[in-house]
Design a protein that fits this description.
Layout (H helix, E strand, L loop, with lengths): L5 E2 L4 E4 L2 E4 L5 E4 L8 E4 L2 H19 L20 H15 L8 H12 L4 H8 L4 H7 L4 H23 L2
Antiparallel strand pairs: 1-2, 2-5, 3-4
Helix pairs in contact: 3-4, 4-5
């Protein structure tokens, strides 16, 4: 991701490229897999604040090396795009220090989706945030969340019907 992909004022992140490591070790910035993969993702004010702090800290650090106008959000110590393996390595260290059971960096994506679904966010919105080509993909991947949502739906309909019964009996 590049700083130009963040609209701080509107709280929007533009997803327009991916970074992959090829067999021969080169990093390639590719177009996302599908049209839906290129998307706008709303980010919270707290996320905007964290990104602003990171941008400021990054600019201060890079200035020590005479570097200005860093385009990438996650860079190595000389301002170049951070390799995906390095991101994973740093994440592993953070998880270890926090005493959290080991998870992959990519698992954060699944955690994000699961948390949204459990909060009752419509699967279509979750699908759009993830860049899935269809809501069916999202539902197939996250169907493990659905059973608890089924129970919650049963309780919710019962509450509505109970209110209706109370209204009718007056």
């Amino acid at each position: 991701m590049k700083w130009g992909d963040v609209d701080f004022d509107r709280g929007i992140l533009v997803v327009r490229r991916t970074v992959q490591r090829t067999v021969n070790g080169l990093i390639v910035k590719e177009q996302p897999k599908t049209d839906n993969s290129r998307r706008l993702v709303n980010i919270s004010p707290a996320t905007v604040d964290v990104l602003r702090q990171h941008q400021k800290r990054q600019a201060e650090e890079m200035l020590k090396f005479g570097l200005r106008d860093i385009e990438f959000i996650f860079t190595n110590t000389v301002g170049n795009l951070m390799e995906p393996r390095k991101v994973n390595h740093i994440f592993d260290r953070i998880i270890g220090k926090a005493g959290i059971p080991k998870i992959r960096f990519h698992d954060l994506r699944h955690t994000h989706a699961t948390m949204l679904l459990k909060q009752g966010i419509h699967p279509k919105i979750v699908s759009e945030r993830l860049g899935h080509s269809s809501i069916g993909i999202t539902l197939d991947i996250y169907s493990h969340v659905i059973p608890s949502m089924q129970r919650e739906a049963a309780v919710a309909i019962d509450q509505v019907l109970q209110k209706d019964r109370n209204t009718l009996s007056r």
